[in-house]
Amino acid sequence: MIGMQKNLPKPVDFWASNFYAVVDTDACDGCGNCEKRCQVGAASVSAKKKQSSLDLNRCIGCGVCVPTCPTKAVSLQKNYRSYGRDE
Q1: How far is CA 49 from CA 28, 29, 33, 44, 46, in A?
Q2: Domain 2-79's class?
Q3: DSSP state of 9
Q4: Cβ(30)–Cβ(46) under 8 Å?
């Protein structure tokens, strides 16, 4: 089911999550594990910078990318907007 979300332009509109993924660019070595594991196509590695970035319009906060990062550069952050607060 989640794999089908790659075809949607903004999967985050269809999933309610209390989290979103973030990348510590200083720790990221651009290995691409997060890009391979992301089921909605939110993670991508720049060939030029050799760093991962996450499209928050696609990230559903599932956390699948977190344990696959060997440098622990990917983590989940609380999504306060899901609670109706802008913090």
Answers
A1: 10, 9, 16, 11, 5
A2: alpha beta
A3: S
A4: yes
Is pLDDT of 46 > 50? yes
For the record, the structure tokens of 6 come out as 């790659």
User: Where do the DSSP E strands lie in the chain?
Assistant: 19-23, 43-46, 51-54, 74-78
The encoded tokens of residue 24 equal: 């510590």
What is the residue whose two structure tokens read 């956390």? 63
| Alpha carbon of residue 62 to chain centroid | 8
Tokens, residue 73? 């550069």
DSSP 41: S
Extract the tokens encoding 67.
Answer: 């344990």
pLDDT of residue 3: 63
Q: Which amino acid is at 68?
A: T
pTM: 0.76
